[in-house]
Amino acid sequence: MKIAFLNMYSGVVNRGAETFVHEIAQRLTKHNEVTLFQFGDKRGRESYNVISIPMKINWSSKDMTGTIWRKLFIDYWSLLILLFTLKSIRKIIKEKFEIIVPLNGGWQPALIRIITWIYGGKMVISGQSGIGWDERNNLWCFPDCFVALSSYAKNWAKRVNPFVKTEYVPNGVDIQKFNQNGDKLKIDLKKPIILTVGALTPSKRIDLVVKAISKMKDASLLVVGDGEQRDELTRIGEGLMKNRFQLIKLPFEQMPKAYRTANLFTLVSESYYSFEIVLAEAMATNLPVVANDDPIRGEIVENAGILVDPTDTDTYAKALEKALQTDWGDKPRKQAEKFSWDKVVKMYENLFEDLIAQS
Description:
CATH superfamily of the largest domain: Glycogen Phosphorylase B
Largest sheet: 7 strands, parallel
CATH class of the largest domain: Alpha Beta
InterPro entries: Glyco_trans_1, Glyco_trans_4-like_N
GO molecular function: glycosyltransferase activity
Keywords: Transferase
Organism: Candidatus Woesebacteria bacterium GW2011_GWA1_39_21b
CATH architecture of the largest domain: 3-Layer(aba) Sandwich
Number of domains: 2
CATH topology of the largest domain: Rossmann fold
Number of strands: 13
Shape: globular
Radius of gyration: 20 Å
Strand content: 15-25%
Strand order of the largest sheet: 3-2-1-4-5-6-7
GO biological process, one term: lipopolysaccharide biosynthetic process
């Protein structure tokens, strides 16, 4: 099969969607011809074909999520995605990819839908954006298949557009890379160490993590990430926890060491997030997790952790204490193995083959 992924941010940042693209493409290329269109240069570890689209980007430009400009896709980033997609179209038409997976939303799925209709390709949307306006737009661009990352998201997608084929395929984790055996970070924090990983943005609600752990007597907090709230979270963390708090930034290759350093993992993002691969990475390292109490997190975590309402920081703190005191055995690791990337890729490969066979 000839398969193409479009993700402007690949090669520049390492978030969930970028991890998804790399892990899926790397494995699909064993039996297929895979191409990734991205802004960043090839980093040397890709076995698939990378096409870099040159553009000038102002990375300090404001994120206008929630504004009318963003909903109409006429904000800076949406227009940049439009330009990125337009620059990719000539190559797409020339290559006539059988399967195209656009990841950036906005104008991108609409344009790719038109192009694939013209030459007979199939467009597949992987619901990385999470339940909300962006996924509604993706669904109403009528993909040949919408891939929901949870059963809850699948049912939601069917209600939004019942005319679109919808399948459930979760995100995954590299269970060979993320395990409890190996080097740890050298961190000057008193144990037990609670770890949280994510972009330092309001929707990740890391301020609630800081406030809850500050109520605990002995636990330390290690935050790994970067973003607009870096200075604010550092101020809050050092103010409430003093030497029990540390915030660092790590390259993705170093992340297994961070997980192995911790005794417990927590992340309590807004409930619309579609999967959050870091939960699976933590569990693969056999860390129990304390996460937001919603149907999506419930399906990911099951019996490998505790779900909680993080806005009640007293209850949240008690849940963290309970998780630290519980003997979890190998439950987290066994739960993570359900989301092995190898299993996930096989599901995508079968889906792509079925779509092509229906042509």
